[in-house]
């Protein structure tokens, strides 16, 4: 099945998210209470709501997107390029820009979105933040009424499961076992909030996000038993 999808018809993506506010006490009292209720099961008695707030970036109701990176193949004859670009800055604007990309260049039925854990995290997070920010959902994100086989999303984590529902494999582990070279100086996903708020280094976050997009594309190539990308084929635009 994967062999029947043209590489040029796949838009690879990854997002980076952070807590909506830098500190717990910057939320209004009602949101603090709602955060306490939302995270009760995860926290149990080990953490107070305030101590747990550094993880707020994984919930769309309490987090926000600071970067969406995308990548796509361009193949002409025997020349193959993988073009990577990112949307970052004010959240509502980056969501609009990403939406415009989908609507203007990847809206056709032949196009699919691809990421690692994209069905459980990236796509729902993007869609929820679009609704919160008053941005109309692209057809590629609006799943209301669609049957499972009509959803145009490929998830490399799901593909790796081969039907094993309890199995979770990180992109980092998958890249390692598939022999995909990755940079050793990447920040960890749990550090993105600190880099954003304390270091104020969005460029570092963009670099990290784009490397994950390339890694997902490399995983897809391995699934298809095709040659991995070499550095000269990767273009940052």
Automatic annotation (TrEMBL):
Identify the keywords attached in UniProt to this record, alphabetized.
Exonuclease, Hydrolase, Nuclease
- The reply on keyword Aminoacyl-tRNA synthetase is no
The record lists the organism as Flavobacterium stagni
One Pfam family cited in the UniProt record for this chain: DNA_pol_B_exo2
| A single GO molecular function term of this UniProt record | nucleic acid binding
What are the residue boundaries of the Predicted 3'-5' exonuclease PolB-like domain, all occurrences included?
A: 62-224
Q: InterPro entries in the record, alphabetically? A: 3'-5'_exonuclease_PolB-like (IPR019288), RNaseH-like_sf (IPR012337), RNaseH_sf (IPR036397)
Question: Which residue spans traverse the membrane?
Answer: none
Which CDD domains does the annotation name? DNA_polB_like1_exo
Protein's recorded name: 3'-5' exonuclease
**What is the superkingdom listed in this entry's lineage?**
Bacteria
């Amino acid at each position: 099945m994967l062999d029947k999808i043209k590489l040029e018809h796949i838009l690879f993506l990854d997002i980076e998210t952070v807590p909506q506010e830098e500190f717990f006490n910057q939320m209004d009292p009602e949101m603090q209470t709602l955060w306490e209720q939302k995270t009760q099961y995860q926290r149990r008695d080990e953490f107070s709501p305030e101590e747990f707030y550094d993880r707020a970036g994984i919930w769309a109701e309490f987090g926000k997107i600071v970067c969406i990176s995308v990548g796509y193949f361009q193949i002409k004859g025997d020349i193959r390029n993988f073009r990577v670009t990112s949307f970052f800055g004010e959240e509502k604007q980056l969501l609009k820009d990403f939406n415009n990309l989908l609507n203007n260049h990847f809206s056709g039925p032949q196009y699919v979105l691809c990421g690692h854990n994209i069905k459980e995290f990236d796509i729902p997070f993007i869609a929820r933040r679009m609704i919160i920010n008053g941005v109309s959902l692209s057809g590629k994100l609006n799943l209301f009424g669609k049957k499972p086989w009509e959803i145009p999303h490929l998830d490399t984590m799901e593909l790796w499961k081969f039907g094993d529902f309890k199995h979770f494999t990180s992109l980092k582990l998958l890249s390692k076992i598939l022999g995909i070279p990755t940079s050793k100086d990447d920040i960890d996903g749990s550090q993105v909030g600190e880099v954003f708020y304390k270091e104020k280094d969005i460029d570092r976050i963009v670099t990290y996000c784009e490397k994950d997009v390339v890694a997902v594309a490399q995983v897809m190539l391995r699934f298809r038993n095709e040659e991995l990308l070499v550095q000269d084929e990767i273009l940052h635009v």
